[in-house]
Amino acid sequence: MKYPRLIIVFIISSLTLGLVGCESKYSQMLNEEAKKNILKDSLIFGMTLGDKKADFFKRCWQLNQKGTVTHGPNNNSVKYQLPMTAEQESTSAITLLFYGAFDEQNTMIGMDMSFSYTAWSPWNSQLSAQKLLPIVQDTLIKWFPGNDFIAVKSDQTEKSAFVKIDGNRQIMTYAKDDKDVVVKIEDLRLKYPKKYN
Questions:
Q1: Which of 98, 107, 110 lies closest to 42, judged by CA?
Q2: Nearest Cα to Cα of residue 32 among 119, 180, 144, 147
Q3: Model pTM?
Q4: How many other CB atoms are found less than 10 A from the CB of residue 107?
C-alpha cells in the first residue's frame, strides 16, 4: 500500500520539476524581476523612463552645446562617439545613434539605439556587427549593472537576440545587419501591467 503512494508522489514531483524546467530562461528572468518590485528607470546621460519629450530635447540640446553629442543622419537621431582609451586603435571607434521612444502623451517609454564601428566598411569583417555585438553587451552591462544577457528568439530578427531584464527595464540587442547593432530599451510595466502592479 505504501509503494503506490510513493510512486504517485514521485510522479507528481517529476512532473512539477519538468514543468519548471520547461519555463524559458526569459520567463524566469521576467517573473523574478517583476516580483522584486524594483523601479529601474535610468537611461543614458541622466535621462529616465517617464521623462517628457520636451525634457529629452532639452537634455540633448544641453549635451550638444557641450559638444558631447551632435545630430545623427537626416536629423532622425542623436549621435555620440563613445570615448576611447589611449591604447585603442582608431579603427575601433564606435558611434552610437539614439532617440527616445514616446507614447501618445509624449512620455518616454523606452529608447532606441544603434551602435556601429565608425570605420565600418562591407569588406572589413573585423568591423562587422557580429564582432561588435559582445562589445556592445559589455558596454551596456557597465552602463546598466545587473543581470547578464541571455539568448532569446525575437520576431524582430531571424538571428539571435539577447535580453537582460533588471526590475521593469528590459534591454534587447541584436545584429540588425553587417553594420549595425540594434538596442531597444523598454519599460515592462507597460508591456506586462499585470506582472508589474
A1: 110
A2: 147
A3: 0.85
A4: 17
User: What type of residue is 88?
Assistant: Q
- The number of residues in the chain equals 197
Is the separation of the CB atoms in 171 and 98 below 8 Å? Answer: no
* Residue whose C-alpha is closest to residue 34's, from 147, 140, 137, 120: 147
CA-to-CA distance for 58 and 64, rounded, in angstroms? 10
In one letter, which amino acid is 145?
Answer: P
Q: Which residues contact 178 (CB under 8 A, 6 or more apart)?
A: 122, 128, 129, 130
Question: Cβ neighbours of residue 117 under 8 Å, at least 6 residues apart?
Answer: 91, 92, 93, 94, 95, 127, 132, 179
- What are the mean pLDDT values of the chain's consecutive 10-residue runs (197 residues total)? 49 42 81 94 97 98 97 92 87 95 97 96 93 97 96 77 97 96 97 91
Instruction: Look at the block and give the residue holding cell 517628457.
Output: 52
Contact 127, 121 (CB under 8 A): yes
Residue type, 16: T
Q: Which residue has the cell 569583417?
A: 125
Q: What is the pLDDT of residue 23?
A: 66
Angle at 100 between CA 67 and CA 75, to 5 degrees: 55
Which runs of consecutive H residues, i.e. helices, occur in 23-67? Answer: 25-36, 53-65
